[in-house]
Amino acid sequence: MESRGTVGRVDRKILVVEDLKTHFKLPAGMVKAVDGVSFDLKQGQTLGVVGESGSGKTVLSRTIMRLTLGNNVHTSGRVSFEDRDILSLSNKEMQKIWGLEMAMVFQDPMTSLNPVVKIGRQVTEHVRKHLNVSKSEAKATALQLLKGVRIPEAEARFNAYPHQLSGGMRQRVSIAIALACGPKILFADEPTTALDVTVQHQILNLLNLQQQERHMAMILVTHDLGVVAGRTNDIAVMYAGKIVEKAPTWMLFSRVQHPYTEALLRSIPRTNQKNHTRLSAIAGRPPDLINPPQGCKFSPRCPYAQDKCREEEPTLQAAQSDEHQFACWYPVGTPENKEAFEKNLAAQLPQTLAFAEGKVVDESVIDNAVALSGGGS
Ligand SMILES: Nc1ncnc2c1ncn2[C@@H]1O[C@H](COP(=O)(O)OP(=O)(O)OP(=O)(O)O)[C@@H](O)[C@H]1O
Ligand code: SF4
Ligand SMILES: [Mg+2]
Q1: Ligand 1 proximity of 24 Cβ (cutoff 6 Å)
Q2: What's the CA angle centered on 120, arms 115 and 125, to 5 degrees?
């Protein structure tokens, strides 16, 4: 499949993240929220970052944007944004990057909107703050932005307060603000989890449209693999602060290798489920990030776990294709994996029994995700 947004041009890497770690020092110990993450992102491309609650998605995004603050924060590694070493820039230098070159859309638009200021003024002020334009030019730009994010009757809504708009409209306003200065990269952290299903699709489609029109890079953070199917070029699956599988989207859906990704795929919320279904389908709990299990951190929940998994942590490696990397000793679909499963089934390992019962399996959901991502075509 041809990469979306790159037809006929070779894009350069806009963001390079190398061995990024963000640890929080707490009285109980060190929380390894992000623990050695590496990836790169080209201009005009979208990366989906997927994982359960607490896997480190938000901390990763905020660390790249230099928004993880506090005396107890220990960050190491390298973030190169357009060849600038982000982790070593001063706050003054970052001020020139925030909003202008890097922007973020949050889960709850009320986080980014001021409840007591009319939305038109909020967008106008943002434009004026970052771009050297007159008041009337800023107002015209703001109106254009509101129309661009498909706010109906934008002129009339210019004087509305956030509470007078629906959740979806408010999210459109915060997207307008995020896009106001033409950022080169947009972080969208669960931008639709607070919205109902229909509006969720509209907002995601809007983000995609804007990303493509502007040839902007985007990091789309979500706990739902269904959201990134068909909307991203690549996917990075996070578990306990690490990327455990990374591949072009179509490849990931067609040839899933990591058991955790497989579990996520089996728990894609079905269309007839209530919105914002948190992942509850994977047996067991996410690991304690202060005292994680030895070896592979997914081993207490993995239906294929063997002694080796409980002793040695696998590292991210490529197998058939350099583009597809995963960290697992018994990858899905291999004879070793089948053997491990049968061994665990015979030993009646609880997570293997639960998996075999297939409570959450719905092959049509998986087929649908593969089709959406362009895989298998
Ligand atoms: N300031 C902090 N101090 C200590 N621990 C923190 C801090 N911020 C985040 N954490 C911990 O880091 C881990 C990763 O958190 P993060 O918010 O990145 O998860 P997430 O993947 O975004 O989850 P969700 O899907 O719920 O948004 C969690 O265990 C969280 O409790
Ligand atoms: S290394 Fe072992 S425990 Fe970890 S995901 Fe792979 S099979 Fe499961
Ligand atoms: Mg989060």
Answers
A1: yes
A2: 85
Write the pLDDT tens digit of every residue in 281-322: 677 888 999 999 999 999 999 999 999 999 999 999 998 888
> Residue 121's CB: how many other CB atoms inside 10 A?
15
Q: Whose CA is nearest to atom 4 of ligand 1?
A: 24
Q: What is the pLDDT of residues 144-165, one digit of tens each?
A: 999 989 899 999 999 999 999 9
Query: What is the model's pTM?
Result: 0.90
Distance of CA 296 to the CA centre of its chain: 22
Which ligand 2 atom minimizes the distance to the CA of 302?
8
State which of 256, 257, 297, 304 you would mutate to test the pocket of ligand 2, scoring each by most atoms of that ligand within 8 A of its C-beta.
Answer: 304
Decide if 268 contacts 64 (C-beta within 8 A). Answer: no
Please state, in angstroms and as integers, the Cα–Cα distance from residue 9 to each residue in 16, 183, 316, following that order: 20, 20, 29
Name the CA radius of gyration of the chain, rounded. 21
Looking from the CA of residue 329, the nearest atom of ligand 2 is 1
- Out of 242, 299, 307, 311, mutate this one to test ligand 2's pocket (max ligand atoms within 8 Å of CB): namely 299
- Kindly give the distance from the C-alpha atom of residue 64 to the centroid of ligand 1, in angstroms, as a whole number: 15
**Burial of residue 372, with CB atoms counted within 10 A of its CB: 0-12 exposed, 13-18 middle, 19 or more buried:** middle
State the Cα–Cα distance between residues 114 and 116, nearest whole angstrom: 6
Any idea which residue has 């109906």 for tokens? 152
> Tell me: the pLDDT tens digits for 258-272?
999 999 998 776 554
Nearest Cα to Cα of residue 118 among 154, 91, 83, 65: 154
Amino acid identity, position 282? I
Ligand 3 center to 221 CA (angstroms): 8
Q: Is the CB of 53 under 6 A from ligand 1?
A: yes
Q: Which residue has the tokens 């254009």?
A: 144
- Rounded to a whole number of angstroms, the distance between the first and last alpha carbons of the chain is 9
CA dihedral 303, 307, 313, 318 (to 10 degrees): -70
Per-residue pLDDT tens over the stretch 191-226: 988 788 888 888 999 999 999 999 999 999 998 888
Diameter of the chain measured on Cα atoms = 73
